[in-house]
């Protein structure tokens, strides 16, 4: 089976196809009706969806995962670990081993995050009234996220490394996070973006730079990026719809919660757990440089949230106090001009 998800030379096609269904601002500067956006996103989920066991040919010869494959070496252009001199001076065999562990662990973290997300979406939709358009879309999204968890676990299993995924603290609190979706739904969708934006940003950078990716890794990224375009779009539209309906004090609190949520979840998603340090004997100073002391790592951290800064501006969640908080957390910067603006112009 050869298609856009197994051929790394067609990285843009799946994402472009999915994105065509997402309404954009019209030429007069107004926005499409929120209800129409939900209808369009739901229709896209019906007509443009993927099944990891149909659209990825896991058993094709070129998809085989073998040891000592240099395509597992982490990219110095994209991955925070891959660009550090400590990693670059390691023997290639060790770079490959770390690269396989790193990619498998990121997939495991993605699986764990999306498991929490599915539970939260189901909790949110449970309380929706009859006729609510959000019910249909969030249920479609939950189905797609279930496929993503299957895909991520299949990838982890085939890499063959017993990775833990997220840090212990994140795993311990995860059963309680879905409750936020009914009590504080806007904050819950902040969390959705806090988990999805870093992974989406990194994967798109991998695909844009044409980094040497193993075909299995490329296929997983392409499928995930294509469907996450809808999921992220819904969260953006939901927040822009809901925030103006809150009073001034609530909007002020939300303006502080947004950067705090982004910064906290970015570290939970991107920073590997302690087992990584023990497994590969990573010096403490190296970990501090990578996350987030060096100039390169600080730039990476800022770049991740260009789209969210744009959303904050559009939603009225940027004010003098919140701007100071964005800066204090190391995630301030120019907002993106449009969703998924490439890093080299959004920095």
Automatic annotation (TrEMBL):
Stretches for region Disordered: 1-35
Pfam families registered for this protein in UniProt: AurF
Name under which the protein is recorded: Diiron oxygenase
Organism: Gordonia westfalica
InterPro entries, sorted: AurF/CmlI (IPR025859), Ferritin-like_SF (IPR009078), RNR-like (IPR012348)
Gene3D superfamilies named in the record: Ribonucleotide Reductase, subunit A (1.10.620.20)
Biased composition (Basic and acidic residues): 22-34
Compositionally skewed regions (Polar residues) per UniProt: 1-13
